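Researcher: I'd like a candidate sequence for this fold, 495 residues long. If you have to choose between options at a position, lean toward the conservative one.
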């Protein structure tokens, strides 16, 4: 059995017993191996390949600054194992995207999570490479005393940059707007969406109808959405959301309106997709006057202020400018109730205009030279706090007067230093940066910083698919995940 065959068997979740039947069919009854022999060879090949993967990682990242990601998930094991808390732990950086391990936790507390994340980095000899953490903004992660982030920094004995998942923050924002329009949800199902699924077989595609009232900036939004459709999107539902936005605003796309899929509680993309579809069929689908009014209200909010920031949330260097502009948009939003509710949530999560992260905007092509000069000046002259807050304190009613430079201090140099390319370019006029090696290296590394935790969801999907397959041995299970991840990278699909 070659390593390639063993890896293919693992990826396709073929048991040792089934593998015996396959070998018999290929080689004949005279060459039928014993099940124990197949199991032994597969375990050996799996362990060898996992060790090779780890050794390659050590060679490939000697000086690459990395972000460490994690995302807890309750996962069903094999028969008799029950449900357990699993913690996919991954790293990302300049050309690096790697699953480290998915340990089982006794509980999803900040203490245990922090210990597991540190242990994974230590086992892979990556502790010194870690410059930051990407995480969902739950209390178990962000708590000031018992949060996972605090405990990880205690273990590594230094400060780490805090890259709160920007999609998670935006989910909280849109959740606030949804609650304003439809009230709080009392369970995992939203009854309006449930009714729509039952009604869908009666839908007539030709009867879909865009918004009646013109939307400010609709042409610009449609143009932006068409540009997004030309790019590769990480998930099909993101592409569908963009297509529906175009249709709702009266534009055209070469796509039918799809049957509504599964609804996942707290999945923002699903919430937006359902809302946009119901809006398009609001004249056919039975709605109360209140539901129709609030539906149009929420849809208008989504398409005018939300879709574009959601789709660009993965861009690290534009994060400070995007978040500041979004907060200003909420403050000025003409529906004051939605604007204030969303703005209050956003104001509590201004991670990317904090003293330590606002410097990302120095590497954003959209930041004009004059703004970069002002930021650098503040980085050199405005003394930062000894222990600066991870999130900037921004008053919603005063945000219009704030600029990116107003958040920068001497502490902002820490980000540039962490990128490991030097910061002498800060002593040169920003108009001359593009020709400098230190700036271009730092810019490349800054652009590779992953600021959404969708990446960690791959680890969640992997452990969900393979935790109940092939082996009960925990060490072999970790080897299995390494082998499957590598095989998927080498052979993305069977075409």
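Model: Candidate sequence:
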């Amino acid at each position: 059995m070659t390593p390639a065959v063993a890896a293919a068997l693992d990826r396709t979740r073929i048991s040792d017993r089934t593998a015996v039947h396959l070998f018999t069919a290929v080689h004949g009854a005279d060459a039928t191996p014993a099940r124990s022999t197949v199991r032994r060879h597969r375990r050996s090949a799996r362990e060898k390949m996992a060790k090779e993967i780890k050794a390659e990682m050590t060679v490939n990242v000697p000086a690459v600054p990395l972000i460490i990601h994690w995302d807890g998930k309750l996962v069903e094991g094999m028969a008799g194992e029950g449900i357990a808390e699993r913690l996919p732990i991954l790293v990302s950086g300049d050309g690096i995207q790697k699953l480290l391990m998915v340990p089982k936790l006794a509980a999803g507390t900040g203490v245990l999570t922090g210990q597991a994340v540190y242990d994974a980095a230590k086992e892979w000899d990556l502790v010194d490479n870690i410059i930051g953490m990407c995480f969902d903004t739950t209390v178990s992660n962000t708590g000031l005393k018992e949060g996972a982030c605090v405990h990880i920094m205690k273990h590594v004995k230094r400060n780490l940059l805090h890259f709160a998942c920007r999609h998670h923050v935006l989910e909280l924002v849109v959740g606030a707007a949804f609650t304003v329009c439809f009230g709080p949800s009392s369970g995992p199902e939203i009854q309006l969406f449930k009714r729509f699924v039952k009604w869908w077989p009666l839908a007539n595609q030709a009867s879909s109808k865009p918004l009646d009232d013109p939307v400010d900036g609709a042409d610009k939004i449609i143009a932006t959405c068409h540009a997004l459709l030309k790019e590769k999107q990480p998930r099909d539902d993101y592409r569908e959301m963009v297509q529906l936005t175009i249709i709702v605003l009266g534009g055209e796309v070469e796509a039918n309106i799809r049957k509504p899929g599964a609804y996942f509680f707290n999945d923002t993309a699903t919430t937006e997709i359902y809302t946009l579809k119901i809006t398009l069929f609001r004249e056919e689908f039975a709605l109360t006057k209140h539901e129709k009014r609030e539906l149009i209200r929420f849809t208008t909010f989504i398409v005018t202020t939300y879709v574009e920031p959601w789709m660009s949330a993965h861009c690290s260097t534009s994060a400070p400018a995007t978040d500041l502009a979004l907060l200003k948009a909420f403050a000025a939003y003409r529906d004051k109730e939605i604007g204030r509710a969303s703005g209050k949530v956003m104001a509590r999560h201004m991670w990317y205009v904090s003293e330590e992260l606002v410097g990302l905007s120095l590497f954003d092509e959209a930041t004009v030279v004059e703004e970069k000069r002002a930021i650098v000046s503040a980085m050199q002259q405005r003394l930062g706090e000894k222990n600066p807050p991870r999130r900037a304190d921004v008053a919603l009613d005063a945000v219009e007067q704030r600029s990116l430079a107003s958040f920068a201090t001497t502490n902002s140099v820490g980000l540039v230093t962490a990128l490991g390319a030097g910061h002498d370019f800060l002593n040169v006029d920003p108009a001359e940066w593009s020709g400098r090696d230190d700036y271009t290296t730092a810019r490349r590394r800054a652009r590779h910083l992953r600021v959404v935790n969708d990446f960690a969801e791959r680890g969640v999907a992997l452990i969900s698919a393979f935790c109940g397959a092939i082996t009960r041995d925990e060490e072999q299970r970790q080897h299995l995940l390494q082998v499957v991840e590598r095989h998927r990278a080498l052979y993305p699909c069977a075409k």
